[in-house]
Amino acid sequence: MSSRWVDVVVVGNGVLGLSTAVRLAGRDPGVRVAVVGPAGRDRGASVAAGAMLNCFGEVTTDTGAHPAGRARFFIARQALDEWPGWLDALVELAGPEAAAVRETSVAGTVVVLSGRSGRVATANFAAIEAALVEHGEPHESVAVEDVAGLTPEFGAHPSRAVHLPREGAVDARAVMAALEAAARRLGVDIVDAIVRELLVDAGKVRGVRLTDGETIAAGTAVLAAGSASGALAQAVLPPGAVPPVLHGTGLALLVEPPPSGPRHVLRTPNRAGSCGLHLVPATDPLYAGATNIITPDPAPGPDIGSSQTLLRMLCEQFDHHLADCHVHRWLCGARPVTADGFPLIGGCSIDGLVLATGTHRDGFHCSPVISTHIADIVLGDSTDDRFDRFAPERPPIEAMPLEQAITEAIDHETDAHYEYGLTLPYWLDEDEVRAHIRQRVRRVYEHLDTALLPETVCITRAAVDPAREDLLDTYLRAARAYHADCKDHTDTATQERDSR
């Protein structure tokens, strides 16, 4: 098959891939850049995203507990500062095709604590309030009766609400169109194809091979293919070198707005094992979401149980009038979620291979900052050391002690039981439910012997598929061996250097 040659091939045409290509071509017109990805972006997270520009709205009890969590927070806060200027730059670069970017953006987010909130969401709401005060972020507590678009069922009446004026949302579909238009105007080669494998020889990137057999030669490859990145990276890197990338299936829908819809983004804190419920008026029709079901392999679509639960909770906790509204379009994408819950950003031991994936819920919001960092790496400029925490070749990040991870996982699973419809007779205490969950969760964590985040370990909940636990166990065993070996080599090199 024929072959073409570029300086940089970007694998993945989502928001990170296109943003990186625009950054590279805009900063150095002499660099030949190609972006490879299927035009339909089937199951892509970017085109299914609500594109909430939320930094503080995403805060959880764990955000500030570990240096990696704090680094991710400050990157997200920088992105919040950069989005207005980034939108202006896109409009200028893309021309008339980008007009919808400004027209559909919405300012302001209202975070509500629903009457149906469990332990996890309630604690996360308190964490959001504490972070707002700690970092001096503008905010205002508002009466729940004054929040436009909030008419929940009686039993789910919210107790608290806080308005974040600097946060909001953009229309993901409009931003993606603007990015592609900007890339084309800057001379980026947009290739409608799927990458089958990375081509590596003698420890250096040589290009990529597409599914039709064509090759694209390149000295640098940026792997930004979302949840598909894991398999491509694992094929060229040693077992255990990089945390595997799992698939977080997110279901959302575009729905006819109710008579009195929200004026701002309306959302809950992040919930048990999932993201927050949200309504986003940046789109027409209204965007409503979302689920986050993590699986080791790509799912063909959302499962019926989580879909039914999402629809019920949207009506119960936000607006019961949604039940009378018509669905215009279903959206489903797979978020890239690493086994340790933190992104894979930066270069690795293969010369010329740079990763930009594993961003979970932060990819769209953080894309202005991440794409700048990736362009810095490729162009050899000074880089942001906050990203050092997310170097792809690393041992799994343990953001909390093992016992705390077990306790949090029990809280997540207990809350999830209630969200999915669990009710108890008056003579049965919740402690009995928690004791049943505790037995299984403790067994899993003690077997893995690693404090992975509860959301990740929740993939083992499907008892019908014991291979899920085996996947984590196999990775952790390989990671311990690989990184211990790397440390031995590093220690030996240090001793030899010091002896000279």
Record keyword descriptors for this entry:
38% helix, 21% strand, disordered C terminus, alpha/beta, six-stranded mixed beta sheet, 20 strands, 13 helices, globular, ten-stranded mixed beta sheet, 500 residues
Can you give a write-up of this model?
The chain is an alpha/beta fold. Helix content is 38%, strand content 21%. The protein contains 13 helices and 20 strands. It has helices spanning 15-27, 45-48, 67-94, 99-104, 119-134, 172-185, 229-234, 304-317, 363-379, 402-419, 430-448, 454-457, 467-499, and strands at 3-5, 8-11, 33-37, 52-53, 106-113, 140-141, 160-169, 189-192, 195-201, 204-210, 215-217, 220-223, 245-255, 265-267, 278-280, 286-289, 293-295, 327-338, 344-347, 353-357. The strands form 3 sheets. Strands 4, 5, 6, 7, 13, 14, 15, 16, 17 and 18 form a 10-stranded mixed sheet that branches. The radius of gyration is 23 Å and the shape is globular. The protein starts with a strand and ends with a helix. Mean pLDDT is 91; it is low at 490-500.
Q: In whole angstroms, how far apart are the ends?
A: 52 Å
Number of helices, where a helix is a run of at least 4 consecutive DSSP H or I residues: 13
Determine Rg (CA atoms, Å). Answer: 23 Å
Q: What is the structural class?
A: alpha/beta
Helix content range of the residues, please?
Answer: 25-40%
Gross geometry = globular
Mean residue pLDDT: 91
Beta strand count: 20
Poorly predicted regions are 490-500
> What is the assembly state of the chains in this entry?
single chain
Reported for the largest beta sheet, the result is: 10 strands, mixed
Strand content: 15-25%
